[in-house]
Write a structure and sequence with these properties.
Order of helices and strands: HHHEEHHEEEHHHEEEH
Number of strands: 8
Oligomer: single chain
Helix content: 40-55%
Shape: globular
Strand content: 15-25%
CATH architecture of the largest domain: 2-Layer Sandwich
Number of helices: 9
Largest sheet: 6 strands, antiparallel
Radius of gyration: 20 Å
Strand order of the largest sheet: 5-4-3-8-7-6
Structural class: alpha+beta
CATH class of the largest domain: Alpha Beta
CATH superfamily of the largest domain: GAF domain
Length: 260
């Protein structure tokens, strides 16, 4: 029986990317055992993939600890992507002012197919934030259907593009109040189009809420979204939107004026 090379290659690619994705600012150096445990792989399998990634320059090994870090090629890829995002540079001072005015962490996100990627982040006052606040970082990938930035980016897509994208979304429960169906998400997106504000109420993670607004290019297309991440409190999300929505939308408009 012929061997399915495409399936094997796909698994190798997935595992290689999973290994690279395990390294974060909080975990910059990891050993084989740590990687194997986090990925659910055997040590021998993990070592084989890590050796390949190191040989290609995507990982490098510390001589003193024998642990691995992201290598030059991986860092070059990341910096090339972020460096090309003029939007990130444009938005940075506006995010800083937004966080200073509200005390909450602000984020800038773009869409990548069915996910959103955080491309900039300005942390709010320390000591106020849910543990997820410290696991998210620049480069984090989040499903669009359970995030405020995702909804802000989906809501203004042309209907054919939105339909195609929704066909490929699997509505898995992420938080206690995740959107569970295409119909429910469509209802929310309709509200986003009416109000210009998207809301995430414990849909990504328990205890975390956020509101977001779209950033547009001069041609009018939505190219990014700005959000405020707000820890849970007894205040209703509608009241949070009323309280922070105007300054959030003003920030999004200020950034939009500078986007080509």
């Amino acid at each position: 029986m012929p061997h399915d090379d495409s399936a094997a290659s796909s698994q190798s690619l997935e595992r290689g990317l999973a290994i690279l994705g395990t390294f974060t600012p909080d975990r910059p150096a990891l050993g084989i055992s740590e990687l194997a445990q986090r990925l659910g792989l055997t040590r021998s399998t993990t070592h084989r993939y890590v050796a390949t990634l190191a040989r290609l320059g995507y990982l490098s090994q510390e001589e003193s600890t024998r642990k691995y870090r992201l290598g030059i090629r991986a860092l070059d890829l990341g910096f090339a992507v972020l460096g090309s995002l003029e939007l990130r540079e444009i938005a940075a001072p506006h995010l800083q002012r937004l966080t200073a005015a509200t005390g909450h962490t602000s984020n800038l996100a773009i869409r990548d197919d069915t996910d959103v990627i955080l491309i900039d982040r300005n942390r709010g006052r320390p000591g106020r934030y849910h543990h997820l606040e410290f696991t998210l970082h620049v480069g984090s990938r989040i499903p669009s259907y359970c995030s405020a930035t995702g909804k802000a980016l989906l809501a203004f897509l042309p209907q054919p593009d939105l339909n195609d994208l929704l066909d490929r979304i699997e509505f898995l429960p992420r938080g206690p109040r995740s959107v569970g169906s295409r119909a429910a998400l469509m209802t929310e997106l309709s509200q986003v189009r009416r109000t210009g504000i998207a809301i995430n109420d414990e849909e990504l993670e328990s205890g975390l809420r956020s509101i977001a607004a779209p950033v547009r290019s001069r041609a009018g297309a939505v190219v990014a979204a700005v959000n405020l991440a707000i820890p849970w409190s007894p205040v209703a999300t509608s009241d949070l939107a009323d309280q922070f929505g105007p300054v959030l939308q003003a920030t999004a408009r200020q950034i939009s004026l500078l986007v080509i």
